[in-house]
Amino acid sequence: MDRVEFQVEVPIRASKGSIFSRLNNPSGLSEWFADDVNIKKDVFTFFWDGSEESARLVTQKREEFVKFRWMEHEEEGAKTYFEMRIKIDPLTGDTALLVTDFAEEDEVEEASLLWEKQLNDLKRVLGG
């Protein structure tokens, strides 16, 4: 089954630097995204409750976004990715984190809820 793109956006009251430091390195990601995170070159390995998944850091721009590709999807030849992008509203100055990800059509709702939970964990870590 083909994966479809979906997005989840959550407002976060924190500086771009504080948010970015939780997106692009193992110690920051292990505070909210996974139980533990290791890195070897550009491949991050995420650990959750006895399971693990690896993703390649495809690209990043300081204090703006990070983009990963799951190794499993890369090996399948899929062009899917997950991206976490920091957004600043030009009128209000409010900060939000926009996640773009892919899931099979019948799993989008569940995947969106999981991202919302994780982003709320990030908000709690950041105090915002």
Please mark out the parts with pLDDT under 50 across 5 or more consecutive residues, or reply none: none
Instruction: Report the strand count.
Output: 7
Helix/strand-derived category reads alpha+beta
Oligomer: single chain
CATH domain class name? Alpha Beta
Estimate the mean pLDDT confidence.
95
By CATH, the topology is Alpha-D-Glucose-1,6-Bisphosphate, Chain A, domain 4
Number of H- or I-type helical stretches: 4
Question: What can be said about the biggest beta sheet?
Answer: 7 strands, antiparallel
Sequence of strands across the biggest β-sheet: 1-7-6-5-4-3-2
**Secondary-structure element order, as H and E?**
EHHEEEEHEEH
Structural shape: globular
Percentage of β-strand residues: 35-45%
Distance between the termini: 37 Å
What is the domain tally? Answer: 1
Q: What is the radius of gyration computed over CA atoms, rounded to a whole number of angstroms?
A: 14 Å
The CATH architecture designation is 2-Layer Sandwich
Percentage of residues in helical conformation: 25-40%
The CATH homologous superfamily name equals START domain
Structure in words:
With 128 residues, the chain is an alpha+beta fold. The protein has one domain (3-126): Alpha-D-Glucose-1,6-Bisphosphate, Chain A, domain 4. Helices cover 27% and strands 42% of the residues. The chain has four helices and seven strands. It has helices at 16-20, 26-29, 71-76, 108-126, and strands spanning 3-11, 36-40, 43-48, 51-61, 65-70, 82-88, 95-104. The chain has a seven-stranded antiparallel sheet. Strand 3 and strand 4 (51-61) form a beta hairpin. The protein is globular. The protein starts with a strand and ends with a helix. The model has no long low-confidence stretch (mean pLDDT 95).
